[in-house]
Each structure stands twice: as structure tokens, then as C-alpha cells.
Design goal:
The complex is a heterodimer of chains A (about 600) and B (about 130). By secondary structure, chain A is of the alpha+beta class. Chain A folds into 4 domains: about 140 residues, no CATH class; about 160 residues, Sulfite Reductase Hemoprotein, domain 1; about 100 residues, Sulfite Reductase Hemoprotein, domain 2, CATH 3.90.480.20; about 160 residues, Sulfite Reductase Hemoprotein, domain 1, CATH 3.30.413.10. Chain A contains 20 helices and 23 strands. In chain A, the strands form 5 sheets. In chain A, strands 18, 19, 20, 21, 22 and 23 form a 6-stranded mixed beta sheet that branches. In chain A, strands 1-2-7-6-15 form a 5-stranded antiparallel beta sheet. In chain A, strand 13 and strand 14 form a beta hairpin. The N and C termini of chain A lie far apart (about 50 Å). Chain B has one domain. Chain B has 6 helices and 5 strands, in the order E-H-E-E-H-E-H-E-H-H-H. A 5-stranded parallel beta sheet of chain B has the order 1-5-4-3-2, covered by helices on one side. The radius of gyration of chain B is 15 Å and the shape is globular. The mean pLDDT of chain B is about 90. The chains are: A alpha+beta (about 600), B alpha/beta (about 130). The interface between A and B is large, with 42 and 43 residues.
Chain lengths: ~600, ~130
């Protein structure tokens, strides 16, 4: 992990002090709300439905055990609404009613507190911290080299990457040093503090794109050219929201040391020409779509000037690359690992044969590693009774302990809202499994249906049209049988409470999107989206199956889709493969047949289940 | 950066005649302006959240090597002064309700000024990783 220097530390402290001053001036009436808003947003503070939301930056997802413990402290001591506030919020949400399921069951909103939430951009969010405690929380974060700098606002946001950066079997080059170098370049960049809209960058350093780079404003793919030189393929203009667009390739190859100069050109042209008249048309994807080659030409011309006239001030020197890259070497593990894989393979086989739960966990939650003696293990934060990606204070502390014991003190927040332990010895997998299972973090559902992505939705977010969490819970509740889950196999279910797409519904094999119809909660279901991973194929937005569904219909629609898959599949084909092979029509037919008629809405039909 | 508290302190009309000034709208291309004999360029922030003038200032100062005064006008608030200074502005005319004392305090407390800034800008061209090593 990157090790903060004294400079980095002083900077984050100064930033926390600056924020405290801004907060104080706002509290004193010296800074109007409208002028305070962008300042607090650029430190991660939103004002939400019932309480502020804090988004803590986790650069390219890497987090240490010490940081996890502070995140736990924040959850325990600060993510605490007053009883009156919580009761009032719960009562307001209860007025929306439960989600009625077939068979007479129902799912209610149950607002929780004292937890952190892992986001689709590898950050961590809290939903209850009062603003008058916000400066204290920023100080606490700064004490472990953390902050909320530019996690919101119309500026360059957190740079995300592959959860297996630096450890992937198919690694081309480690993207993390570049993620860190670009993070520093973008931090408080004075010219780009008030862009037309937010700006998101993702970087992949492996053959498989696990960072969804095609879905970002700028996507970076590390690669070598014909001469064997390392560089980036640069994509620009991807994004979700109202107008999902896959990024276009602006540069097939850019030498590695030029990335900041090139980014400067991209962002400067965007800052100058991105639309300012309509916030729904202000992302760079709109500019790229509208101008096409002209935008590309403008960027190349600007880049040329940055290099030839300005002298390429941000050309990455070998010294700076080496300084940063030195932080990302594999850790020295606490005992001799060489040969561990030979010892452990036999042991793993034996243990797995005895214990089907362990075998399933090995299959789903444990991934291969560059170092054959090690594994990447996912701790599952997808379980009944907890919103997807939520971690209680105790769970965060346990995760920190597990990271210390099994993963050299390091974890990663994944884009799928789980935690990865990236340095686990193969011969310690069983011990880790036992410990994780005791903590309820070893559900063997990674990549399966219940490993779904969901945003906080209408229960917390004032932008949402509908609740996402009761829908997620209803589906999770319906699919608790592991045999069935395993039979369905890998499927990406993504749920967003509104078109802002924080739940990445566009890239789900099955997407669920909350829409507002006549002031009530309705959901659009889409099929066939892809995040660009090998399983899913080239990045592409999903397509709606038809008009929206009521909340009660949604679990039945999911069931109908999965049933269609099982009827149509050939061999061990995945859901997405079957969908692509047979086309969406059988699925759409099944989904739309799951709609309730007026009569059926009154008496939930038992034969549906 | 020089802070002008309010418009009444702005260079008077007659003085303006002695200072050849160009006023640019914030969507104007700085490259399209003749800079011959120009001593001052007034750039505009129609809303403080519209950051186009930062790029205009950068281009004028660094790319076009304009040596005269670049002045920030419009919705100029204390909390954006540091970004303006770093982007090449050397004078800022504060919006009427902005407090000069707070402005100076806030400018001095900008994270970059105490400890150094990460990236190069229109004024300090080299980024920290270069200057640190020097």
C-alpha cells in the first residue's frame, strides 16, 4: 500500500483544518448554504434524506487494518442518529408500506445504524453522521491517512481499479502506482475544481477488465506496444445515468510517463467546452458524443501544446515512479510460503472432501493469485438481514483482525461491495474460513445471485425514486438455498434506486432500476448489461424488458428470468451466455408474464412460487 | 494575489483608458484575442461554480505567455481565491458581500500554501515530485 510521506500527512491535516474552518463559518452564518455546499461535497459530505452522508475516499480500493479500525470507530461512535431521528425516519419509511411477496410474506424497511457501506467505486459511506461532527470525523480519518477529498463535487473523483491489482494471474502491469500518482496530481487541482460535472477515472492493469473501464469518463487499460514499451490505451466518454454510453478509444497507445499530461489535455478541453446549461447534459460523454472527432482533435492539439510548449511538466520521472512503486511490492509474509501450495493443495482437497461448505467457499470466494502460494479471498458482505455491502462496526474490526492475521494487514474494497484479502497463504485458507465463518463473513455466494450490487436507495438517499434495499432483501430471502444458488451460477444482479445509477444497474446481467410513477415505487427491469469483464463480454448497457413493475412483482420477475435460463441453457452455460445465445425474447416473455393482473394482485397466487 | 474588496475600488473609468484592458466572456477563446499592447485582461466567473475562467487564465498565463494583469471578476468568493491565484490570476475583485479579512485568512490557510502543492500550475510550473527532489 502507498505509504504517506510527511508531506502527504501535512496536506491531509491542512485539508481537514480548512474544512473545519468552512464548517464553522457556515455554522456562524458567514458562509451561505449554497456556497458551503460545493466545499463540503469536495470533502465527501452530502445532505441526504434523513441525515448527512459521508463518502470516504479509498484510493483504488486499498485499505489497511489500521484504517479499517478507524472506519469501525467512526461507525460505532459517529454513525449514530438520535433515537428520535431514527424513529422518525423509520416511521416515514414505513408509510411507504412493505414489499408484499407471493406466499403472504413481506419485506419491510428496517433502517440500521452504526455501520459503513462499501460502494461501487471502492469507497466507504456512512449515512447518519451529523454535520456538526463532520470536522471531528475528518480529523479522525486524517490520523490514519484517510480523507473525503473530491469524493463528490464537480471535480476529479476517486480513481478506481481492479480488486486484484498487483496480484492478478493475468496481470500486464500493476496499475496501483499509476493510480496513486494520478490521485496526487488530481488532488486539489486548481484549474479543475469546478468542472461542468463529476469526473471518474478507472484503470485496469490486467488482460481481463475487472474495473469496468468502459463505463468511466476516462478508462485506462495498461498494455505493451509492439516495441514492448509499457503504456495506456485511453478511453474517454463512458458513463451511466440517463444516457448510458460506453467509452470510445481516443488513444490506442500512450507511453506510461505521459499519462498526466494527457489527462490534463482531456480535462482542460472538457472544462472549456463541456455543457454548463443543463446538469443532465454536462458529463464528458455528452461532449464526446456531440463532437466526436473534433473533441479527439482538440485533445491531441492541447496535449501537443502541453508537451511542446509547456514542456510536459507532469511527465512522470523514473524516480517518482520508483518512489511510489516501491510501496506496492508484495509484503513479507510471516512465514516461509514457498512450497506452501504443494503442501496445501493436498490438504485442501482432503478438507474440502470432508466439508462441502468449505469446498463451496473455496470455489466461490477464493481466487487464484500471481504467487501460486497465495490466494485472493473475498469476505462476503452479502447476507440476509444486512443491506448488500454494509459492514457493522464489529464486522469492520473483525475484518481488520483477519487482514492482520491472514493478509499482511491489507484489504481491498471491491467494486461489487465486498472486502478482498489479497495476501492469503494457501495453507491458511482453512483457518481463515473458520474465522470468517464464525464472523458471518464466509457465505459462499461470491459471483452468485445474492452477491448483488445495490445502492442505499430511497431509504437513505434523497435522490432515489424508490427503495432498493427491500427489493434486495426480498430477492436474497427468496434465494437462500445454496444448491439452487449454485445451480443458477454466476449472474450479475445490479440494483439502483434511481437513474443516477450508483447501483450500476446498466451493467448488470439483470438490472433493476427504481422509477417514480405517480409518486409510487416502480421498477424497470433490464437484461444483458455488461461491465466489460470476461464473463459478461464487451461493456454494454442492458435493455428494459418492458414497462415497469411494482415492488411486489419484482421477485417474481427475477424468478421467471432465472427459470427461463434454466430451461434454455445448454450444459453449464452461464446466465449471460444463455441470454446472448437465445436472445432476450424468451426472457422478456417470462418476465412480462409475471406481471400481476388486478385480480392476482389481491390474492397472491401460490402456484407462482 | 491582490484582493480588491469591492467594485468601487476598481480602477476608475479614466484610469482604464491608461490601462489597455480586454474583457473576455468566460466562453471566449483566449487564442482568438490579440494581446498586442494589452496590459490587463478581465476574466469572468458568472457563477462561482463555473470554472471555465480557470482554464482561460491558465492558457493566457502559461500558453500565451501573457505578462500583464489577469483579473478575476464576477462571482468571486473567498473560497476560490487560491485556485484563482494558482491558475494565473493576480488580481481578484471580490463580490460585494465578501469579507476582505476572511478572504486573506482563507487564502493563507489553503492546504497547498503551508505545505506545498501536489501538482504544478500556472504559477509554479513543476509538480511537487520534481521540486521535492531538487
Amino acid at each position: 500500500m502507498y505509504q504517506y510521506t510527511e508531506f502527504d500527512r501535512q496536506f491531509v491535516k491542512a485539508r481537514a483544518n480548512q474544512y473545519r474552518d468552512q464548517l464553522t463559518r457556515w455554522q456562524n452564518g458567514q458562509l451561505p448554504e449554497e456556497e458551503f455546499r460545493p466545499l463540503r461535497l469536495q470533502n465527501g459530505w452530502y445532505v441526504q434524506r434523513y441525515a448527512p452522508m459521508l463518502r470516504v475516499a479509498v484510493p483504488y480500493g486499498e485499505v489497511s487494518s489500521a484504517q479499517l479500525r478507524v472506519l469501525a470507530t467512526i461507525a460505532r461512535e459517529y454513525d449514530q442518529p438520535t433515537p428520535a431521528l431514527l424513529a422518525d425516519a423509520q416511521a416515514t419509511q414505513d408509510k411507504l408500506g412493505p414489499v408484499l411477496l407471493t406466499g403472504g410474506k413481506s419485506v419491510h424497511t428496517h433502517l440500521t445504524k452504526g455501520y459503513a457501506h462499501f460502494t461501487t467505486r471502492q469507497n466507504v459511506q456512512y449515512n447518519w453522521i451529523p454535520l456538526d461532527k463532520s470536522a471531528d470525523v475528518m480529523d479522525l480519518l486524517a490520523s490514519v491517512d484517510m480523507h473525503g477529498i473530491q469524493t463528490s463535487g464537480n471535480c476529479i473523483r476517486n480513481i478506481t481499479s481492479d480488486e486484484r491489482a498487483g496480484i492478478a494471474v493475468d496481470e500486464i502491469a500493476d496499475p496501483r502506482p499509476f493510480g496513486e500518482i494520478m490521485r496526487q496530481w488530481s488532488t486539489l487541482h486548481p484549474e479543475f475544481a469546478f468542472l461542468p460535472r463529476k469526473f471518474k477515472i478507472a484503470i485496469s492493469g490486467a488482460t481481463e477488465d475487472r474495473a469496468a473501464i468502459g463505463w468511466h469518463d476516462v478508462g485506462l487499460q495498461m498494455l505493451h506496444n509492439a516495441e514492448g514499451e509499457l503504456g495506456f490505451k485511453v478511453l474517454v466518454g463512458g458513463g451511466m445515468g440517463r444516457t448510458p454510453v460506453i467509452a470510445s478509444v481516443i488513444r490506442e497507445f500512450l507511453p506510461w510517463h505521459q499519462i498526466m499530461n494527457y489527462l490534463e489535455a482531456i480535462v482542460r478541453v472538457y472544462n472549456r467546452y463541456g455543457r454548463r446549461d443543463n446538469i443532465y447534459k454536462a458529463r464528458i460523454k455528452i461532449l464526446v458524443k456531440a463532437e466526436g472527432q473534433k473533441y479527439f482533435d482538440d485533445v491531441e492539439a492541447e496535449y501537443k501544446q502541453i508537451i511542446e510548449h509547456d514542456g510536459g511538466p507532469h511527465t512522470i520521472t523514473q524516480a517518482e515512479y520508483d518512489r511510489v512503486a516501491a510501496c506496492f511490492v508484495p509484503p513479507v509474509l510471516h512465514a516461509e510460503t514457498a512450497g506452501a501450495h504443494a503442501r496445501s493443495d493436498a490438504q485442501l482437497h482432503a478438507t474440502a472432501a470432508e466439508n462441502i461448505q468449505f469446498a463451496r467457499w473455496l470455489q466461490q470466494n477464493v481466487a487464484p493469485h500471481r504467487n501460486p502460494d497465495l490466494r485472493a479471498v473475498t469476505l462476503s458482505f452479502k447476507r440476509l438481514g444486512q443491506a448488500p455491502g454494509d459492514a457493522t462496526a464489529d464486522q469492520l474490526d473483525i475484518a481488520a483482525d483477519l487482514a492482520d492475521t491472514f493478509s499482511a494487514g491489507e484489504a481491498r474494497v471491491s467494486h461489487e461491495q465486498n472486502l478482498i484479502l489479497p495476501w492469503v497463504r494457501a495453507d491458511e485458507l482453512h483457518a481463515l474460513w473458520l474465522a470468517a465463518r464464525a464472523a458471518g463473513l464466509a457465505k459462499a455466494n461470491i459471483h452468485l445471485l445474492t452477491d448483488m450490487i445495490a445502492c442505499p436507495g430511497g431509504d437513505f438517499c434523497s435522490l432515489a425514486n424508490a427503495r432498493s434495499l427491500p427489493i434486495a432483501e426480498a430477492i436474497t430471502e427468496r434465494y437462500q438455498d445454496f444448491d439452487e444458488l449454485h445451480d443458477i451460477g454466476e449472474v450479475d444482479l445490479h440494483i439502483s434506486g434511481c437513474i443516477n445509477s450508483c447501483g450500476h444497474h446498466h451493467s448488470g446481467h439483470i438490472g433493476i432500476l427504481g422509477v417514480d410513477k405517480d409518486g409510487k415505487e416502480w421498477y424497470q427491469v433490464s437484461l444483458g448489461g455488461s461491465d466489460g469483464s470476461l464473463l459478461s463480454g464487451p461493456a454494454v448497457p442492458g435493455k428494459a424488458v418492458g414497462p415497469s413493475f411494482s415492488a411486489a412483482e419484482v421477485p417474481d420477475v427475477i424468478e421467471a428470468l432465472l427459470q427461463t435460463y434454466r430451461l434454455q441453457r445448454e450444459g453449464r452455460e452461464t446466465f449471460i451466455s444463455t441470454l446472448r445465445r437465445v436472445g432476450p425474447e424468451p426472457f422478456k416473455l417470462a418476465a412480462n408474464s409475471a406481471r400481476f393482473s388486478v385480480a392476482r394482485a389481491d390474492t397472491a397466487d401460490a402456484s407462482l412460487s | 494575489m491582490k484582493l480588491i474588496a469591492n467594485l468601487s475600488d476598481q480602477t476608475s473609468a479614466s484610469a482604464l483608458n491608461d490601462v489597455k484592458t480586454v474583457v473576455l466572456a468566460n466562453d471566449a477563446d483566449p487564442h482568438g484575442v490579440s494581446l498586442d499592447g494589452v496590459q490587463r485582461i478581465d476574466l469572468n466567473f458568472p457563477k462561482f461554480t463555473d470554472g471555465r475562467a480557470f482554464s482561460q487564465a491558465f492558457l493566457l498565463r502559461r500558453r500565451l505567455e501573457f505578462k500583464g494583469e489577469i483579473r478575476a471578476t464576477g462571482d468571486v468568493l473567498v473560497d476560490q481565491l487560491a485556485q484563482m491565484e494558482r491558475s494565473g490570476f493576480d488580481v481578484a475583485v471580490l463580490r460585494g458581500d465578501q469579507d476582505l479579512g476572511i478572504a486573506q485568512k482563507v487564502l493563507a490557510a489553503y492546504p497547498g500554501y503551508g505545505v506545498g502543492k501536489y501538482q504544478g500550475d500556472a504559477v509554479t510550473i513543476a509538480p511537487h515530485f520534481i521540486t521535492r527532489a531538487a
